[in-house]
Design a protein that fits this description.
Among the domains are: 73-188, Roll (Nuclear Transport Factor 2, Chain: A); 210-301, Nuclear Transport Factor 2, Chain: A. Helix content is 31%, strand content 32%. The strands form 2 sheets. A 4-stranded antiparallel sheet has the order 1-2-3-4, covered by helices on one side. Strands 5-6-7-8 form a 4-stranded antiparallel sheet, with helices on one face. The longest helix has 23 residues, at 30-52. The chain is built from 7 helices and 8 strands.
């Protein structure tokens, strides 16, 4: 009997063990799985952004302006030929017809019609051009150029003559083959006049003492006395860095005019005019210089 109870008790104990629930703690827990999903997702997003992100940095733009050199020789020559033919005529029927035929070689058809009656058959004057001065050639738009010019025109009526000075502006078109045609008739314009600009004059600022000023003045008087006829070898004793070129002219030194001195460090800057007598023309010639001098053993012009 005892053995039977033990056996039964043992079976019940084993049965109870089977009923015990085992909780697995590890990678299968829902919260841990969610964390792993978030981690993997973040890592994947970071890798994606690394490959697709646009680099953000400061872009420094540098504007390069290229100067285009326009050859205006053809435009100037075309204009001069036109002006000569346009303002030249005689009070004769044959001359007037020849003029019109020549002028039409420069003008558009519209301008040809506009200029038909410029020189009438009964015009009492004759005209000739003595000088043509072109003041400017400017590009107005693509292939279109404006030319401002002045003419000296001799007007003759019977036995009387007078000079006419006038300034005009025309427009020209230049095609891809460089051919030219005038598209706007000579229009009265203004001639460039003298500007009222006055450059600021340098002044001595007290940085050069009287002894130094006297030294530099004597040096410059000696130098400019022989400078016009000096050879390159002789200039080398007074000038460095090609500061002044060889002249090779027969000038006689007269004087220095109003030298102005300023000192900066070991250098003295001088503004001055130099008066010469030109032995060829017998006229007075005044040259102006801005020089930089340094003293080692002797004074030298270095710039």
């Amino acid at each position: 009997m005892k053995g039977l109870f033990k056996k039964k008790e043992k079976q019940e104990t084993e049965k109870e063990r089977k009923k015990l629930k085992i909780r697995m703690v590890g990678t299968r827990k829902k919260s841990v799985i969610i964390l792993w999903i978030l981690l993997i997702g973040s890592l994947a997003f970071g890798i994606y952004k690394n490959f697709t992100a646009i680099d953000q940095h400061t872009v420094h733009e540098k504007e390069i302006v290229e100067n285009t050199i326009v050859d205006t020789n053809a435009i100037e020559s075309f204009t001069k030929n036109f002006v000569k033919d346009y303002y030249t005529w005689e009070n004769k029927q044959e001359s007037i017809e020849q003029r019109e035929e020549k002028v039409n070689n420069y003008l558009t058809e519209e301008l040809q019609a506009l200029n038909t009656d410029m020189i009438r058959d009964d015009i009492p004057t004759s005209s000739s051009v003595s000088r043509i001065k072109i003041w400017s050639v400017s590009q107005e738009s693509e292939n279109t150029y404006a030319v401002v010019y002045t003419i000296n025109q001799k007007i003759t009526e019977e036995k009387d003559s007078e000079w006419n000075h006038a300034t005009y502006r025309i427009l020209l078109h230049q095609d891809d083959t460089d051919n030219l045609v005038i598209t706007q008739n000579p229009t009265l314009w203004n001639q460039p006049q003298k500007s009222d600009y006055e450059p600021k004059q340098p002044e001595s600022n007290g940085t050069v003492d009287s002894d130094t000023a006297q030294e530099v003045t004597e040096f410059l008087e000696t130098f400019f006395a022989f400078y016009p006829t000096a050879t390159d070898k002789e200039l080398a004793y007074y000038v460095t860095n090609n500061a002044l070129p060889q002249i090779g002219k027969d000038y006689t030194f007269s004087e220095l005019i109003n030298p102005v001195f300023q000192q900066s460090g070991d250098q003295v800057q001088v503004w001055l005019s130099v008066k010469y007598l030109d032995e060829t023309t017998k006229a007075t010639q005044v040259s102006q210089y801005v020089l930089t001098l340094e003293k080692d053993t002797n004074w030298m012009i270095v710039g």
